[in-house]
Fold:
Amino acid sequence: MQLPRRSVQLTQVTEWDDGEVRAIEDYLAAEEPLEIRIGETPVTVTMRTPGHDAELAAGFLWTEGLVETPDQIAAVHESGTDSPAASSLRKNLVRVELRGGAFDPSTLQRNFFAASSCGICGKASIEAVRRRDLRPLQSGFHIDPSLLCQLPAKLRDQQAVFGRTGGLHAAALFDAAGNLLALREDIGRHNAVDKIVGWAIGQELLPLSSHVLMVSGRGGFEIVQKALAAGIPVVASVSAPSSLAVKLARELSLTLVGFLRGRRFVVYSGAERCVAAESLSQARD
Structure:
């Protein structure tokens, strides 16, 4: 599988193996800051793994509610990426041009600060999501539990950068039949989700009301919030969700699955989308 340009870096390390010491070369997942601007107005700086930066910018603007419709995004410019001589600053800058008049910086009242460890800080509350007026998801979508169990292996098989470095998160989008539509990797799991949403914007697929989002690691609040913004009804992860993620998922009718490993998973919200009604009734009796 082809690795995104600048997504990995080669370094010298010292390996200790049962008493034997040797110097070897090893791959690291790249981490660099990316500044996202609307026109010339700075919006945020996020620590990310280079690659699919235009998708990241578009997805971020959508999941954070800075654009109202996908077609409001007229163009996304990745500054300097086509020039080997471009400075590091220019390589880490994306400008988004919007339709419908000049951007009003006064709309940037929220404090955006993204980091690989914490997601979007300073706004991680359900009240912030309520103010965005995100609607509860419709209940019509359903995915077979056996098919759901196949998703982690499909995600892992396509993690090109993780396979080289062992140190990266991934988000993958699947359709109702379990077909992998897109996979993105990043040092920050929230960035990987934004890249998926940005891809969907480019494909004119929003809202993603018949899809499943699978993420590596835990299912945190920022993952659930971004999935809701994209209209995704099911979010699954191989680890545990946070308490705030569960609360938000239950409030807005999102199906949240954790500990999806082998032939077992735990449903924290919206079990009706992946468990048969009669089975749910028997389990609750």
User: Anything to note?
Assistant: Confidence is low (pLDDT under 50) at residues 81-88, 111-124. The first strand starts at residue 8 and ends at 17. Residues 32-125 form one domain. The chain has ten helices and 14 strands.
